[in-house]
Amino acid sequence: MRIDIISVLPELMESPFQTSILRRAMDKGLVEVHFHQLRDWAINKHRQIDDEPYGGGAGMVMMIEPIDKCISELKSQREYDEVIYLTPDGVTLNQKIANTLSIKNNLIFLCGHYKGIDQRLRDLHITKEISIGDYVLTGGELAACVLADSIIRLVPGVLNDEQSALTDSFQDDLLSPPIYTRPEVYKGLEVPKVLLSGNFRMIEEWRHDEALRITQEKRPDLL
Predict the structure, then answer these.
(1) Which CDD domains does the entry mention (predicted)?
(2) How far is CA 22 from the centre of its chain?
(3) Stretch 179-192: mean pLDDT, rounded?
């Protein structure tokens, strides 16, 4: 998988990709992540990439030309499965979206800034618009990191235990059941006996029942 991320502040995203699972995925050659400074495609010597909105109003708008030039150049080099715009008015990211994107080969992420991008860019290039929640961030960089993490961890070979990803919350529209580890008793609190029984059928039934109970309590909208 290759992910190209277009941003005004690519340095903001470098750290998350230098550690843990994301770094391991890149070291294994399973994923490539490339950052592109949008100002490199600016149209004047001032490296301008924003301008005032037509019709007046507060804020600035990301200009069409630098972004179009950047995406067009990337597209000339390879086929992309999706060109994704990170924006508050996109569809809210969920596990099903992450699952779907994890089997793609080439993705472009465009990080929004200011009041957003010229609408014509959405018409020309954007194939999917994604939000990570009903709130507004300074820019799309943190959202791009969240999206990348949710996708990359699902790429085959990235996790040492691939079964782990299949039992995450939301994979079957349920939240995860409670989990325990040693010691068996701590401050009078005991691990449920069924988890110590060695009866895997009973354990799986208990986990499913607990996942259902917790989902009903915390996120009934998922059911």
Answers:
(1) TrmD-like (cd18080)
(2) 12
(3) 96
Q: Tell whether residue 132 is among the known ligand binding residues.
A: yes
29 is in an annotated binding site: no
Whether the Cβ atoms of residue 141 and residue 12 lie closer than 8 Å to each other: yes
Q: Please check if 137 is assigned to a binding site.
A: yes
CA–CA gap between residue 154 and residue 170 (Å, rounded): 13
The annotation status of 209 as a binding-site residue, yes or no, is: no
pLDDT digits (tens, 9 = 90+) for 34-65: 999 999 999 899 999 999 999 999 999 999 99
Instruction: State the SS3 of the chain.
Output: CEEEEEECCHHHHCHHHHCHHHHHHHHCCCCEEEEEEHHHHCCCCCCCCEECCCCCCCCCEECHHHHHHHHHHHHCCCCCCEEEEEEEEEEECCHHHHHHHCCCCEEEEEECECCCECHHHHHHCCCEEEECCCCCCCECHHHHHHHHHHHHCCCCCCCCCHHHHHCCCCCCCCCCCCCCCCCCEECCEECCHHHHCCCHHHHHHHHHHHHHHHHHHHCHHHC
Report the C-alpha gap between 85 and 109 in whole angstroms. Answer: 6
